[in-house]
């Protein structure tokens, strides 16, 4: 019983100490905000701009849409800046090392925050499940840390000339909305953009290449409502398309269809219905397959790599039909001559068609893979 009562006394004292500690912190934070003006930047009245450091941790790449040309990513964005107005009295002594952290979530609405926006975003959403995903901390030296989890939908201009053997670069550009570079500057932290989970989902259409390229940049505006130079940061996500689906469907299936079309060169010259059926069937199948493969692309005005492939493999059944006409019956009184001519063409085409298809494959893959 004595041990039990001592434990209870210790817990009560510990709880009282924690309560007093939290109350002291709460009173200290309130005192820091007594004469605080959230409409003024931390360097207001000086010639120095506010330096904002940006760090992004990439949680996942949720989707990449070719048709809409957009990238959807799940991120954790953290901003760092110094606001000496919030430095605690104990830390104003330069010889003292202050590492205390204070939670400013209750005071976030009273805190000055940079008016940043994502230049190429279509939408941005902060996660709120199970609670609002965000935090804001104050280091006793006046360092403010603001972090939020955001799902971003970004515009990603794509060049689909090499589709589906392409690599796309999607930017993420963060800029201040109203403060020019003489009042606010943006810079990446040492880590810049990191990846929380290096494992990549095998079902994704793209593979994220690392490292992610980051740089600082300046944008100049000249408009009635805003004029000047603005400090921005840019991160470029390089995405290499996964080719498993297209290799197994777009290329392999169409190649088999082309090979099947060559069977007609071994059919008798007089088997006109069989030759016509084979040629028309393979031609329609290739056209249907090509339209299906291209259905996921936006209506672009230039030729892609898959267009080149489909057009060239479609040439085979077309050429086959031309050869069938040339080797067919020209007239009833020249039947024997027509059969001999058709048989001679078939023997040559048994070599010419596979040879041309082999040369085309070598040229195609050499060009688009290099």
Automatic annotation (TrEMBL):
Residues in Ig-like domain copies: 114-232
Chain segments annotated as transmembrane: 248-267, 273-293, 351-368
Molecular function in Gene Ontology: chloride channel activity; extracellular ligand-gated monoatomic ion channel activity; ligand-gated monoatomic anion channel activity; transmembrane signaling receptor activity
SUPFAM superfamilies linked: Neurotransmitter-gated ion-channel transmembrane pore, Nicotinic receptor ligand binding domain-like
GO cellular component: plasma membrane
PROSITE patterns: IG_LIKE, NEUROTR_ION_CHANNEL
Subcellular location: Cell membrane; Membrane
Region entry Disordered, spans: 1-23
Membrane topology: Multi-pass membrane protein
Keyword Transport found: yes
UniProt KW keywords: Cell membrane, Ion channel, Ion transport, Membrane, Receptor, Signal, Transmembrane, Transmembrane helix, Transport
Sequence similarity: Belongs to the ligand-gated ion channel (TC 1.A.9) family.
Name the UniProt record assigns to this protein: Glycine receptor subunit alpha-1
Organism: Araneus ventricosus (Orbweaver spider)
Lineage: Eukaryota, Metazoa, Ecdysozoa, Arthropoda, Chelicerata
Protein encoded by which gene: Glra1_1
